[in-house]
Recover the amino acids of this structure.
């Protein structure tokens, strides 16, 4: 078991020093609980592992994983930069206080208005297509603007087809064969290309495809340097580092991984004589994934064709099991290390059969009223939540040194309708 669950003297799950049962009692459920210390540990472990081998290294936190302002603030204070993929994420990052030059905007299928917004906010723009380049060039004041391109390095990887973002089915990036041409064109249009980027997918625990992508991207960078004379200030290998969700999955050997990536990077820099550009990574899941728990209360034990434990959260709260069939480990918060005595389905409260957190899950005895903790809920948990079935979204709590603070209030019924208008004529 990799999850390193902490318990307190009562035997209850302890999150950042706070008792999960107390949190649920005080703030109600469903509830996202975020452990501040764990975010910092994850950030520093990754940063130290790479920067100790290549000093010119930067992390761009992929904030799509979790855009909570407090989470982003913690990472800002750690020295992180931001990977933003929409104007909303740019706006949020600026609001948190990230300087524009610390934000890299990687949009896809962006509109001209979105390009204008990115340009006027002063962030770095990472282009995804020739179309974007041409349309950006038509906007005022782009002369000398620093840009980069996302390249599809032909290889993809990820925990689910939906999360593979490289290779011949992917909608992302420019093809590696056209890279020299797009960079040359950018120069001809008056831009200053300074970077190159790839992101091959998400939830990668096997270092091999990642290494292959690094290899390919470095060769593309080398060709662009030689043929279009672009000097790279940064080379960005995207995010994607996985975390174990299932007890049997092993943690990526970070030291070995960083050593192999850095060695390959240095070897290629030397081969093409490309100097010492900044190496960037864009982790999302690795930083915040295991720092958060979704607490949910069992309200129904039901034996029909199968045995179900029904809880008061659903795929509106945590979409990953339904959307990708993702495994999330689930424990009883009052005895997180109890041995399984049965297999049971753990079902959400949304009116769809696919609303299932687990099927045939080995669990200890569960009773109505028990509190369950769904682990590894910090990445793509709240950020993919919705109000489906007219269920207000839950609160988020930040825990540090045993102290809990509400960092997002639970939505109310009024929030469900706050943006709607019923035309006068329908009210007659
Ligand atoms: N950079 C770019 C350009 C990305 O598109 C992504 C994720 C990342 C970095 C961060 O990837 P990470 O390190 O978190 O794996 N909703 C899915 C994941 C979708 C990821 C989309 N892009 C899930 O719940 O697994």
């Amino acid at each position: 078991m990799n999850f390193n669950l902490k318990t307190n003297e009562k035997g209850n799950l302890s999150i950042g020093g706070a008792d999960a049962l107390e949190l649920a009692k005080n703030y109600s459920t469903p509830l996202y609980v975020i452990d501040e210390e764990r975010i910092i540990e994850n950030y520093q472990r990754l940063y130290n592992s790479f920067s100790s081998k290549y000093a010119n290294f930067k992390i761009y936190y992929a904030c799509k994983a979790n855009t909570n302002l407090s989470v982003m603030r913690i990472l800002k204070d750690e020295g992180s930069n931001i990977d933003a993929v929409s104007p909303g994420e740019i706006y949020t990052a600026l609001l948190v206080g990230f300087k524009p030059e610390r934000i890299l905007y990687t949009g896809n299928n962006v509109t001209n208005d979105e390009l204008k917004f990115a340009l006027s906010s002063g962030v770095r723009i990472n282009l995804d297509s020739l179309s974007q380049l041409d349309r950006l060039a038509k906007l005022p004041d782009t002369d000398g603007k620093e840009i980069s391109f996302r390249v599809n390095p032909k290889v993809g990887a990820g925990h689910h087809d939906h999360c593979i973002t490289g290779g011949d089915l992917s909608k992302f990036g420019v093809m590696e064969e056209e890279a020299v041409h797009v960079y040359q064109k950018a120069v001809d249009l008056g831009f200053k290309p300074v970077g190159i980027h790839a992101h091959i997918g998400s939830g990668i625990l096997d270092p091999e495809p990642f290494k292959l992508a690094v290899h390919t991207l470095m060769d593309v960078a080398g060709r662009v340097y030689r043929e279009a004379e672009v000097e790279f200030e940064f080379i960005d290998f995207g995010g994607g580092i996985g975390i174990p969700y299932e007890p049997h999955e092993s943690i990526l050997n970070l030291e070995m991984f960083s050593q192999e990536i850095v060695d390959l990077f240095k070897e290629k820099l030397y081969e093409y004589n490309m100097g010492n550009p900044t190496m960037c990574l864009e982790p999302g899941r690795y930083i915040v994934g295991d720092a958060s728990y979704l607490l949910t209360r069992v309200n129904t034990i039901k034996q029909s064709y199968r045995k179900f434990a029904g809880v008061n959260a659903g795929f509106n709260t945590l979409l990953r099991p339904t959307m990708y069939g993702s495994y999330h480990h689930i424990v009883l918060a009052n005895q997180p290390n109890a041995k399984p005595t049965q297999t049971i389905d753990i079902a959400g409260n949304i009116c769809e059969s696919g609303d299932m957190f687990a099927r045939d899950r080995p669990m200890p005895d569960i009773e109505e009223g028990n509190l369950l903790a769904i682990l590894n809920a910090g990445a793509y948990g709240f950020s993919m939540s919705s109000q489906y079935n007219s269920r207000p979204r839950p609160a988020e709590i930040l825990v540090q040194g045993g102290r809990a603070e509400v960092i997002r209030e639970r939505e109310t019924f009024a929030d469900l309708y706050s943006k709607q208008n019923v035309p006068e004529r329908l009210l007659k």
Q: What stands out?
A: The two ends are 62 Å apart (CA to CA).
